[in-house]
Automatic annotation (TrEMBL):
N-acetyltransferase domain ranges (all copies): 1-160
Coiled coil region boundaries: none
Organism: Aminipila luticellarii
InterPro entries (alphabetical): Acyl_CoA_acyltransferase, GNAT_dom
PROSITE patterns reported in the protein's UniProt record: GNAT
Keywords in alphabetical order: Transferase
Name this protein carries in UniProt: N-acetyltransferase
Length: 160
């Protein structure tokens, strides 16, 4: 089940992100979410704006992601390609799992496409696990975007 995250979920959500950061570092992607990204304050803001969701199975949070419908400033400039369209889209950000449940990305995608059929997502060039999940779930590589700190990300789009 996917539902909006609540403030009382934050400690568990932070634990999920810690597990994800460790997995990323162990698989050759130590810089994408270095230090304590995403910070608790960012997640509190996501909750306040009703943009943070959790995946629950057997009354336990196993995954988390931000989902925002509307323009994303980091996607306003793309190089080495172009977006498939400029229609209203939803963006999936900061998706993470505790690693104990299979198929979380597919469930997230199903949830998001029930809200809007045009999706965008990006990931770090060292995040091969996420690239594989994105590409095997119907997203097409569109180019390179730059996140707030100026680092590049591979950008993808999905149109249902």
């Amino acid at each position: 089940m996917i539902r909006l995250a609540k403030y009382e979920d934050l400690d568990t959500i932070m634990d999920v992100y810690e597990i994800a950061r460790k997995y990323m570092a162990d698989t050759g992607n130590a810089t994408q979410w270095a230090d304590s990204y995403p910070e608790r304050e960012m997640l509190e803001k996501d909750i306040r704006h009703e943009q943070l969701f959790v995946y629950i199975d057997n009354d336990k949070i196993h995954g988390v992601f931000a989902f925002i419908i509307g323009p994303d400033e980091t996607y306003s400039y793309i190089e080495d390609g172009s977006w498939k369209n400029e229609e209203l889209y939803g963006t999936i950000h900061r998706i993470a799992s505790d690693g104990t449940v299979k198929g979380l990305f597919g469930r997230c995608l199903d949830f998001c496409t029930q809200k809007i059929s045009n999706l965008r997502i990006d990931t770090h060039h060292d995040n091969h696990t996420m690239q594989h999940l994105i590409e095997t779930n119907g997203f097409e590589r569109c180019g390179i975007i730059y996140v707030q700190d100026g680092s590049p990300r591979i950008a993808y789009q999905y149109v249902k």
